[in-house]
Amino acid sequence: MFRRVLTTVTAFALLTGCSVTATETQPPGARVVTLVTHDSFALTPELLDKFKGATGITIKPLASGDAGEVTNKLVLTKDAPIGDVAFGVDSTFASRALKEGVFAEYASPEAQKGAQRYQLDPPNRLHAVDVGDVCVNIDVAAFKDIGEPKGYADLADPKYKDMLVVEDPATSSPGLAFLLGTVDEFGADGWTDYWTRLKANGVKVVSGWEEAYTQDFSGSAGKGPRPIVVSYASSPSAEIGDDGAARTKALLDTCYRQVEYAGVLNGARNPEDAKKVVDFLLGEQVQADVPGQMYVYPSREGVALPEAWTKAAPLPATARSLPAADVDAKREQWVQQWRMLVQS
Amino acid sequence: MAHAGPKLSPRLGPRLGWSLAALLPLAFLGVFFAWPVLAIVALGLGEGGVLPALARADTWDLVAFTLGQAAAATVLALVTGMPVAFLLARCRVRGTGVVRAAVMVPFVLPTVVVGLAFRALWPDGGVLPIVLANAFFNVAVVARTVGGLWARVDRRAEDAARALGASRFRAFTSVVLPSLAPAIGSAASVVFLFCATSFGVVLVLGGARHRTLETEIYLRTVQLFDLSGAAALSLVQFAAVIAVLVIGGAARRKREKALPLRIEPPRRPTGGEWGVVVAAWLVVLALLTPVVGLIVRSLATDDGWSFAGYAALAGTGERGTLAVSGLDAALNSVRTATDATVVALLVGVVSAVVLVGLRRHRSWFAETLDTALMLPLGVSAVTLGFGYLITMDALPGDFRTSPLLVPLAQALVVTPLIVRIVLPVLRAVDERLRQAAATLGASPWRVWWEVDFPLAARSLLAAAGFGFVVALGEFGATSFLARPDAPTLPVVIARLMSRPGELNSQMAYAACALLMVVTTAAVLVIERLRAPSGGEF
């Protein structure tokens, strides 16, 4: 017995060797930039290695939730920031971050190569890294006979009854983008009426994109019952069959644009290196890497998209967006109204 | 410990000693739980607007639904977990080792995956799948906690009752059940708290219709940044949890007493016992159904069966979609869970010993410590995560972003489980054995080492194994912390789930299968350590 207990204790002692404390630590004097990101952040590891080779800077990503969570964490810690650079605050939450003074001013030379198109504020504290359009996606095969829906109005047409699944705007970022798109289309007075019609037409509401897309949608691997779903402009690029044709497509009249921004944090421990990291995110190599890694479009002009994208998922030429300040001021009210309307 | 300090009066001495030992768990709870939670709630209260939030009618609907679904899931988990506990503790049947490992598997599955599995059967979600899914996660808690004590309960009283003509059922209800009551009470409180704060399951299966305090606190904190509304709901959650703990504790204490504990070797079931064994197997079968479903999903593609998901996971995804390979993520998971288990064992064992020591002196302090240790199970993960953000920078080296914060947060969840598993066994140790040892001149420390420890050692190992598995699958607290990029398997699964395309979803399910393999291996290794052998005592 005691021998066994000793074995266990020894085993644990050995195990602590494989504890997180045993993971590599930075040597003193190392140049480390902490990059606060959303959970979907991903880059090809070689790019980070190359950047370190060229500049001597190690980028330490710090995953901090979705866009909303990242923004709120930054606001909560603005007096003692948890990193030097933040990436993942999107157009829906940007004005809150700017109002609270989370970001420092920085005029990146790389921002003049396309990112300036999405600039929010004159001093340019936030830099657009990528663009992700939320659009209604359809399962092409399901509409061979009845004709494809084209825009918002069709979704409320009895011809397409019980076919649409959307995400809850209170818990899902594409769900919120779709709601904002309907506000943009039907106006501050008309959108509730539209949703009443959607409800009558059998819209299904689920809490997140995973359920909607992988389970309810008929055009994905889940083979669900509903052929219309709220997803992204880029989603069809992942649904190309062996014949080279995409099984799904995005309805380009229903796209709402979400831009994801990066910026140097006010009070960064290492502002000079932080600026270099922002330049890096806006640079050619990272911009070419974002479609494959994060399923979003580069903000930089003249960056080639992967082949599957040019075929099945081009960036919508026009997309809706509401002014960031309006969204910030009315979001909670709209979501509450939506809840009363759809969930009652 | 026993040799230190001046001689105190014999009445005061032990109590003071126990109180000093209690400083470790108290300090741990104080720094990593009470301080961050109180700080974030205070911040919300400072903004005002709490009373209006409390006065809203839907707040009380939330409370009712939260407690209602948790109570239903707890009852279901108890009813289905008891036969499994019996099988694990009492029966020598082929395949029991497999059952022991299989029961643990649900515990590590990410809630989003389980939610999706249950949604496949109930596409519209609703209350029934929420209750079933919550019970699904928690059968293991009942089987482990109750089984741990059951394996120690002397059979002779039961056999005597049978010899005197009691029916099997009568012997069970009047002899066995009362002696198991403390463990059943323990399991019930833990399961209830787990279900009351379950987050992912409610989100996925509740759709937009069913909300609990936990999902609403998340929404207010993370999406709306309404800290005062979140603080109001957190206070309601505290009150409900403390009420449940106090009631549960009172019910437990009435029944806890010394039992004649022995290591009871399992026997071949006889007669009606086979009925219970079959029931246990059916429960395990039901638990494994979603698991098998996941494995099928990881292999099925449009054009038949394929290992593409597994092959991609061995690398970093087909187009380099993951920053680390699945195997690296598995290693990260094991590392984090190890740290969490070591911390939780240290705090948990000290707490259990202190609680037992203090109980002999009947003190309010022990009751308070007992309740305090359970609290982290009943407090919203998002509250804790945001609380860390505004407090942990005061610790050296900006602890907010330390890789150690994740295992410490997990240890908060694992510690109460360890306490609940070890405590019933320690409490049941016969005082007369201890007195005999003391009379023969053993110091308190020596008494503990020679009497309590050998009797409790195996349940300690069981607790460690259980804690390790819980930490492996823990995603609640972890997902609200800022995590340096060493993705664990649950994180990788969540990342893959949020991407379109057949291969990504296959990889996600393959990662789930890998997580299950790691879990099963961990449980089997620990079982090996626990295997009874001759000359143990």
UniProtKB/TrEMBL annotation, chain B:
Membrane-crossing segments per the record: 20-43, 63-89, 101-122, 128-151, 172-205, 225-251, 272-296, 340-359, 371-392, 404-426, 460-482, 507-526
Membrane topology term: Multi-pass membrane protein
Protein name as it appears in the record: Thiamine transport system permease protein
SUPFAM superfamilies: MetI-like
GO biological process terms, semicolon-separated: transmembrane transport
Localization per record: Cell inner membrane; Cell membrane
Major location category of this protein: membrane
Keywords: Cell inner membrane, Cell membrane, Membrane, Transmembrane, Transmembrane helix, Transport
GO cellular component, one term: plasma membrane
UniProt-listed InterPro entries: MetI-like, MetI-like_sf
Similarity field: Belongs to the binding-protein-dependent transport system permease family.
Lineage, opening ranks: Bacteria, Bacillati, Actinomycetota, Actinomycetes, Pseudonocardiales
Domain ABC transmembrane type-1: start-end pairs: 63-246, 330-527
Superkingdom in the source lineage: Bacteria
Pfam families: BPD_transp_1
